[in-house]
Write a structure and sequence with these properties.
Helix content is 61%, strand content 9%. With 599 residues, the protein is of the alpha/beta class. The longest helix is centred in the middle third of the chain and has 54 residues, at 232-285. The chain is elongated, with a radius of gyration of 36 Å. Residues 1-9 and 59-65 have low confidence and may be disordered.
Length: 599
C-alpha cells in the first residue's frame, strides 16, 4: 500500500462499517441499556463496602449486645447481594446482545463482500488471487466479529467504569484523586505511540496471512500438475517460507502489543500504589475513615482495570481497522462492466435463433494494453446460422466469445444482438440469451442432477434428464453409484474429461438459448463419445444461432460458414470446400490434419 493510502488504516477506517451496523439500532440500544445497568451496579459495589465498613464495623455498629451492628451488617450484605444479582443479569444480557450483533454483522459483511466480488469482471481476477479474497472473507471478518461482538462492548463498559470510577474517586478524596489523575495522564503517551505501531504491524500481519492463503489455494487447485512434476517438496518449502514470513510479522505485532500492555500496567498500578500509600497515612492521621480508604482503593482498582482493558481493546481495534480497510477495499472495487441504468429489452426470440453483428471491434486486454487481441473485426451472422471459428492459438477466438458474453467491453466498435447494442442490455438478459460450453469445463461439488440444472434453475428432473440424453451423458450418469443423485466430487474429479464435457453440454442445452457458443466442445471426447455428442449438437443447433471454436477441423466441416482468424482479424471466410480450394491458411491447416501423413 502506498503512502497516500496509509491514513486509511487509522481507527477512522472503522466508520466504513456503519452501514452494516445501522440496521440493528434496536439491538444496540438494548445492549447499551444492559451495559449501563451493569456498569452502574459495578460502581455501586465499592460504595456498599464503604457503608458496610463504616456503619457495620464502626462506632455506630457497636452496641451493648451488638444487635444494632448485626442489623447493619445483615442489611448491607443483603444490599450487596442484590447489587450482585443485578450485575449478573445485566452482564448476561449485555453478553448475549453484543455476541448476537457480532455474529449478525459478520454474516452480513461476509455476504456483502462475497456478493460484490462475484459480480466483478474477469479483469478483477487478472490481478487478484482468489486465496487472498478467501482470506479476507474468513480471517478479516473474524477480526471484525471480535471487534463488534466483544471489543466495542468492552470499550464502552470500561469507558463507563473509568468515567464513573473517576467521579467517585473525586467524591471520596479530591486530594488523592488529583494526584492519581496527574500520574495516570502519563499512560496516554505510550498507548498512542505503540498503538500506531500495532496498527501498521496488524495490517502487515494480515497481508502475510493472505499471501500464504493465496499460495495454498493456487497449489491445491493444481495438485496433479505439482505431483506429476514431483514438486511437492518445493511447494511445501515455498508455503513454509510464506508461513514463516507471516509468523515473523505476527511476532513483531505481538511484541508491540506486549510492550504496550506492560508499560500501561506498570504506569497505572505504580501510580495507584503511590496514591494508596498517601491514603494509608491519611487514615493514620484521622483525616480519612477506613471505609473511605477501602472505597477509594476499590474505585482506584476499577479505574486502573478499565485503563488496562481499554489498552487491550485499542490493540484489537487497531487490528480490526486493518481488517476493515482490506474488506472495504474489496467493497470499493467497481466492475467496469455494468448494466445500463435504463436497459433496452431484447426483441422477442425468433424461431431460428438470434442475429449477431460486430462492427469494427477492437480490443486489448487491460493486463496487456500494448497487444491487440482483436483488430477492426466485423461480422454479420444470420439467425439460425452455424459459424465455425478456426485459427492458430492466440488468433482471438476465445477473446471473441468473452466479448460476446460481455466479460469485457471492446475499446472500439460495437457488438449487436438482434440489432441491440449489448452495452444497452441488462447483463442478466444478455447472458441469459447465450449458452456456453467452455473449453475448461466447470463441474461443481454437487450431484449430477444439480450440475446440469445449473443451466436453468427451475428445470424439472425430466427436463434435466432429457438434456443429458441429448448430450450423450445419460448412459454414464445412470451407471454412477446413485445415478443422477451421485456426488461428482470437487471440480468433478470423479469424472473423466469427456464426461465432464458432456455434463457442460447438457447444462447449455437445458438453458435452451437463442445463441450457443461452443468452445472446443468435443476436444476431450474419445471417438465414440464425439460421434454421439456431434449428433446431439447437430440436433441442438436447430432453431438457434451457433458459434463453434474448434482446432479439430473434422468437427466444423458441416458449418454453414467457417471464419479463419489470425492476429485478431478474420482473414478467410467460406465453406470447408471453398476454403480448401483457396489454398490459404485454412487449406494449410486442413492439409496437416487430413493428410495421410499427418500422424
Amino acid at each position: 500500500m502506498n503512502s497516500k493510502e496509509q491514513p486509511k488504516g487509522r481507527l477512522a477506517t472503522l466508520r466504513g462499517l456503519l452501514p452494516f451496523l445501522t440496521p440493528y439500532k434496536k439491538q444496540f440500544v438494548l445492549a447499551g441499556i444492559a451495559l449501563v445497568v451493569a456498569a452502574t451496579a459495578t460502581l455501586a459495589i465499592p460504595y456498599a463496602f464503604k457503608q458496610m465498613i463504616d456503619a457495620g464495623f464502626g462506632a455506630a455498629g457497636v452496641g451493648a449486645a451488638g444487635a444494632k451492628g448485626a442489623a447493619h451488617i445483615d442489611l448491607y450484605f443483603i444490599a450487596l447481594f442484590g447489587v450482585a444479582c443485578v450485575l449478573a443479569v445485566a452482564t448476561a444480557a449485555r453478553f448475549y446482545m453484543v455476541s448476537w450483533l457480532g455474529e449478525r454483522v459478520t454474516a452480513d459483511l461476509r455476504g456483502a463482500v462475497y456478493s460484490h466480488v462475484i459480480t466483478q469482471s474477469p479483469q478483477f481476477f487478472e490481478t487478484t488471487q482468489t486465496g487472498e479474497v478467501l482470506s479476507r472473507l474468513t480471517t478479516d471478518t473474524t477480526l471484525i466479529q471480535t471487534l463488534v461482538g466483544t471489543s466495542v462492548s468492552m470499550a464502552l463498559r470500561n469507558a463507563l467504569l473509568f468515567a464513573g470510577g473517576l467521579v467517585m474517586l473525586f467524591v471520596t478524596s479530591v486530594k488523592l484523586s488529583s494526584v492519581i489523575i496527574v500520574l495516570l495522564a502519563a499512560v496516554v503517551l505510550p498507548i498512542v505511540v505503540f498503538g500506531r505501531r500495532v496498527r501498521k504491524l496488524s495490517r502487515a500481519s494480515q497481508d502475510r496471512v493472505a499471501d500464504a492463503s493465496a499460495l495454498a489455494g493456487e497449489i491445491l487447485n493444481a495438485m496433479p500438475t505439482v505431483q506429476a512434476f514431483t514438486h511437492e517438496g518445493d511447494e511445501a518449502r515455498r508455503f513454509g517460507s510464506s508461513v514463516e514470513r507471516a509468523f515473523e510479522t505476527a511476532i513483531l505485532r505481538i511484541r508491540a502489543r506486549a510492550a504496550l500492555t506492560v508499560i500501561a500496567i506498570l504506569l497505572v498500578f505504580g501510580a495507584i500504589v503511590f496514591v494508596l500509600w498517601l491514603g494509608a497515612h491519611a487514615v493514620v492521621r484521622g483525616s480519612m475513615t477506613g471505609g473511605e480508604l477501602g472505597q477509594f482503593i476499590l474505585y482506584a482498582a476499577i479505574v486502573a482495570g478499565a485503563i488496562g482493558a481499554l489498552s487491550e481493546v485499542i490493540g484489537d481495534a487497531q487490528r480490526a481497522a486493518g481488517a476493515a480497510e482490506r474488506l472495504l477495499e474489496l467493497l470499493a472495487v467497481r466492475s467496469p462492466i455494468q448494466s445500463p441504468a435504463q436497459p433496452e429489452p431484447l426483441p422477442a426470440r425468433a424461431a431460428n435463433g438470434a442475429a449477431l453483428t460486430l462492427r469494427d471491434v477492437g480490443f486489448r486486454y487491460p493486463s496487456r494494453p500494448q497487444t491487440a487481441a482483436l483488430s477492426r473485426l466485423s461480422l454479420d451472422i444470420r439467425p439460425g446460422e452455424t459459424v465455425a471459428v478456426v485459427g492458430p492459438s492466440g488468433a482471438g477466438k476465445s477473446t471473441l466469445f468473452q466479448l460476446l458474453l460481455r466479460f469485457y467491453d471492446p475499446q472500439q466498435g460495437r457488438i449487436m444482438l438482434d440489432g441491440v447494442d449489448i452495452r444497452r442490455l441488462d447483463l442478466h438478459a444478455l447472458r441469459g440469451a447465450i449458452g456456453v460450453v467452455p473449453q475448461d469445463t466447470v463441474v461443481f461439488s454437487a450431484n449430477a442432477l444439480e450440475n446440469i440444472r445449473y443451466g436453468r434453475a427451475g428445470a424439472s428432473d425430466e427436463e434435466v434428464i432429457a438434456a443429458a440424453k441429448m448430450a450423450a451423458a445419460h448412459e454414464f450418469i445412470e451407471k454412477l453409484p446413485r445415478g443422477y443423485q451421485s456426488f461428482l466430487g470437487e471440480r468433478g474429479v470423479r469424472l473423466s474429461g469427456g464426461q465432464r464435457q458432456r455434463i457442460a453440454i447438457a447444462r447449455a442445452l437445458l438453458k435452451n438459448p437463442p445463441l450457443l457458443l461452443l468452445d472446443e466442445a468435443t476436444s476431450a471426447l474419445d471417438a465414440e463419445s464425439e460421434r454421439l455428442v456431434q449428433g446431439a449438437l447437430q440436433a441442438a443447433m436447430a432453431g438457434r444461432t451457433t458459434l463453434v471454436i474448434a482446432h479439430r477441423l473434422a468437427t466444423v466441416q458441416r458449418a454453414d460458414r467457417i471464419l479463419v482468424m489470425e492476429h485478431g482479424q478474420v482473414i478467410e471466410s467460406g465453406t470447408h470446400a471453398e476454403l480448401t480450394a483457396q489454398g490459404g491458411l485454412y487449406a494449410s491447416l486442413a492439409a496437416l490434419q487430413f493428410s495421410p501423413d499427418a500422424a
